[in-house]
Amino acid sequence: MKLIKGAIFDMDGTVLDSMCVWHQLSQGFLDPYGVRITPEDYAAIEGHTQYQTAEYFARRYPQVPLTAEQMAAGLNDTIAERYARLARPKDGVTGFLERLRGEGVPCCIATLTSRMHAEKALLDRDMLRYFDFLLTIEDIGVSKREPDIYLQAAARMGCAPEDCMVFEDAPYAAETAKKAGFAVCGLAEPAYAAGETLLRSVSDLFIERSFDELAGKLAGKAAG
């Protein structure tokens, strides 16, 4: 594998085993009000911030007796509780991040999770120190169906896309990064099992279970 000058990591499902935090989150929150979220709703809120999502649901389902502000606060409380209770570092990821730091490779997070939750989730697990910066949905404003978050991350690290590797578990996001010129390391994630064939097809490296599988397969060097 060629040398890399920068590493861009997704968070949920990639550095954290945390997809369970988001499973049925909005549906569970709205269940008491008799709301059934549709596939069209999920498509409409893709790439939205947490507050924008709350605004959408407040407009879409006026029978829910909550303002957008109250809904956003309730969702945020639920997300924070779920991260604290359920999220764990991915197997082998801490050792891998230590290795990249030792080799002088800049690392960052590129996530559609809000900054308040992303920073706390990583800080609580003593992982924030491995990343030079975080880019979140609030910074970018579009989903990972567009390459903006990866391109901005590479630019901040002073790297060209072809000199960076993107670590992703979401097939559509990995495909976006690949089309934008990045090397891709895909990770098997049960939440995206239906798209694993696509994920494998766009991945230069693939992790089945643990970052330990990358030993001897990836070399890095400091930018410069």
Layout: helices, strands, pairs:
Blueprint: E1 3-4, E2 6-9, E3 16-17, H1 19-22, H2 25-30, H3 39-45, H4 50-60, H5 68-86, E4 88-89, H6 93-102, E5 107-110, H7 115-124, E6 133-135, H8 137-140, H9 148-157, E7 164-168, H10 171-179, E8 183-187, H11 196-202, E9 205-207, E10 219-220
Parallel strand pairs: 1-10, 2-5, 2-7, 5-6, 7-8, 8-9
Antiparallel strand pairs: 3-4
Could you report the average pLDDT, rounded to the nearest whole number? 92
The gyration radius over C-alpha positions equals 18 Å
Proportion of strand residues: 5-15%
Q: How many angstroms separate the termini?
A: 19 Å
Overall morphology: globular
The helix count comes to 11
Strand order of the biggest β-sheet: 6-5-2-7-8-9
State the helicity in percent bands: 40-55%
Which segments are poorly predicted (pLDDT under 50) over 5 or more consecutive residues? none
How would you sum up the major sheet? Answer: 6 strands, parallel
**Structural class label:** alpha/beta
How many individual β-strands? 10
